[in-house]
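Hi R.,

Here are the chain sequences for the assembly we discussed:
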Amino acid sequence: AFFWLVSLLLASLIWFVSVHLSDQEDAKLQYGLLVFGAAVSVLLQEAFRFAYFKLLKKADEGLATISEDGRSPISLKQMAYVSGLSFGIISGVFSVINILADSIGPGIVGIHGDSPYYFITSAFLTMAVVLLHTFWGVIFFDACEKRRYWCLGLVVASHLVTSGLTFLNPWYEASLVPIYIITICMGVWAFFTAGGSFRNILKCLSCKQEDDSRVMMYSALQVPFED
Amino acid sequence: MITFMNNSDSEDETCNERTSLMSAESPPVPSYQDGLQASEAGEVQTHRKRQTGGSCSSNNVADGDMSDLGVRVRENALENEEEELTLKYGAKHVIMLFVPVTLCMIVVVATIKSVRFYTEKNGQLIYTPFSEDTPSVGQRLLNSVLNTIIMISVIVVMTVFLVVLYKYRCYKFIHGWLILSSLMLLFLFTYIYLGEVLKTYNVAMDYPTLILVIWNFGAVGMICIHWKGPLQLQQAYLIMISALMALVFIKYLPEWSAWVILGAISIYDLMAVLCPKGPLRMLVETAQERNEPIFPALIYSSAMIWTVGMAKPDTAARGPSQQTWDAAEDGRENHSSPSHSDSQILETRSPVPSHPITSLEELEEEERGVKLGLGDFIFYSVLVGKAAATPSGDWNTTLACFVAILIGLCLTLLLLAVFKKALPALPISITFGLIFYFSTDNLVRPFMDTLASHQLYI
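And here is the predicted structure of the full complex:
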């Protein structure tokens, strides 16, 4: 969350400077600067996600060297999930909390001609953003770990596309639906990246007792101790 | 209002005394650890030399010496074990501190956002005599700096006074002072707080009910904090009085003065803990020399640590661990420190076998928990509360400050584990908090507002 905040800070700084250096009256220019600011912010977020990955990798190595069995207590996949989730939570909260706070107060939505569905669509968009960040975190860390740079590029590109789609608001059919399609695709991709498979789902749903594999695991564990 | 202002002298004095005490205490556990190491050296000289503290020197001296080799290997093993335990339990301690700090902040922010009283300007404390209602920016800045200087000097004077009292063993005076100030907090401030909350929600309460509620709350609080009580109740009371104190500060400190004071007090904290002649260091060292607990009721503890100040636990269940624990308690003062110093202490007591120590250590570390001075709670909450009280009503600023303070706390605990030295808790958190407050309020807020008005997401 801290890393995301710092990235947001830097992006705001860039936007702020650019706005104050430019003509305040020109609406088109201001809108263009806003687009630019949003794009810079997305790129900075991904850059900071990468920086966080590097930090966690170092911490992981440190934990592994000092732990009893040579493995760190938290796996990289868990760290990826947590990092994605925290990015998502802080991003979602920053996007929506002021809207929520305003929604308590007296007022009428869309009285000046804006869409009356502002609150509900904001809620759905925020949910999509939170889920997306979580999935992106998992995929990103895995891609960095396995050095699959095309995956990284795809994650960044999909973030840019998602942010760009929100520019189509209030034409909600064009923005919400594709964003949710992207969310579902990313979710499936993240699931398979994290090691899931159809078999896992079936096993989970059927709640079978895995006695044989436990015995196997135990005997598999014995080997290192014997060494 | 007038009566409140008239009383302000005595109660603010105790408030400030409390503040000064708390800022004196504000370096957390780490500060005691410094004193702890000093007392260890005093107690067990020979053991200390052979222990991890002396491992460096023994490494240099006994290079080719076979007889020392065994000692070195054992020391290295102990050191590794110690580091491991430090990092493992360090993470747990961080979480144990997150919860109370977060709770205190939540109480303060919830009150600020809902009760109008605490954001209204109704006068100032006598400690900040210069008004900020001046026409020019320069004059306002000057006034706030002067206010800060006065406030910090009051705090320094109080702290030094306290240290002098402690050195000359005027315990009755100190205890009386503490009891008076906590009485004031628990009764008067709670009464005002309850009154304002009831006013906000337009709930009527008759005087007999009010008296009953306040009396019970205050009396149980006094007993819990100064004598024995269930641990969680004591923690809850400490959180509540920190929140009340923070609310008083938020209300009565003028805008710019508050920010300059926050900055100045973190610098003061840094100096007072790290400088050799700092009052806080002297206080801790004196307490160490006498093997006494430093003042109860000013430290938040997250586990059952003192046998004096808590309800007697199920002693039968504890058994041998309790005995070792009590022995360790006799050897050093109650306000213990994070795991690594505990393991150091335990090693000095029984140096030879490492396996039994590990299990005892772990047991006792889990029981010990971690401590943080109430001053830290108060100033963290003041920062977040001031962020919440900004006229623009922006929640992003509050959240950003909250995250910044927690990250600062994490870093402080990390540095503590790395340096194993006394470290103050305020500077890093407050610095991050201030940076994030000003940058979020001025840079991020317009950006996010513009994005939200177009319903854009980044």
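The longest strand of chain B covers residues 299-301. Confidence is low (pLDDT under 50) at residues 1-64, 305-367 of chain B.

Let me know if anything looks off.

Best,
T.
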